[in-house]
């Protein structure tokens, strides 16, 4: 029988104008402690962003979203946070913050295939 993994995921959001509290879903971060798994998938729809007011610089947002992925994947170019253990990286990425890039509260689930679950959540919530 295939193993089911308990996981948590959060939606990565871009808040173009903080005062308006509106957001665009731009990614998913998925974590499973017991499977030693953390992945982030990010896609910024620049055209959609250009069609609404935005206080943030698009290049800076792109750079910060890339850093978000690097941290999740443990890439050394993600800086010291990327060197933390997997649970600590997930908690750091999903910490509440008032910035242009935020995450939803983490949500739990069960999965036999974490990569497929990441793709499914990304397609449902971001695309």
Question: Brief overview, please?
Answer:
The chain has 127 residues and is α+β, with helices and mostly antiparallel strands. The chain has helices at 46-50, 58-73, 86-93, 114-125, and strands spanning 5-14, 24-32, 37-42, 101-103, 107-111.
Top keywords for this entry?
127 residues, alpha+beta, 5-stranded antiparallel sheet, 4 helices
Give the total of beta strands: 5
- The chain-level mean pLDDT equals 92
What is the CA-atom radius of gyration, in angstroms? 15 Å
Helix content: 25-40%
Separation of the first and last Cα atoms: 32 Å
Shape: globular
H/E element string? EEEHHHEEH
The description of the largest β-sheet is: 5 strands, antiparallel
- Number of continuous helical runs: 4
Query: What's the domain count?
Result: 1
């Amino acid at each position: 029988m295939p193993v089911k993994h308990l996981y948590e995921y959060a939606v990565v959001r871009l808040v173009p104008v903080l005062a308006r509290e509106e957001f665009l879903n731009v990614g998913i971060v998925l974590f499973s402690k017991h499977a030693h798994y953390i992945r982030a998938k990010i896609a910024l729809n620049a055209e959609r962003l250009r069609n609404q007011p935005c206080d943030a610089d698009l290049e800076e947002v792109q750079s910060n979203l890339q850093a978000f992925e690097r941290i999740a994947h443990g890439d050394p170019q993600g800086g010291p946070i990327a060197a933390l253990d997997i649970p600590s990286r997930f908690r750091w990425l999903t910490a509440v913050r008032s910035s242009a890039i935020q995450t939803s509260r983490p949500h739990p689930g069960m999965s036999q295939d974490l990569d497929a679950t990441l793709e499914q959540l990304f397609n449902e919530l971001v695309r």
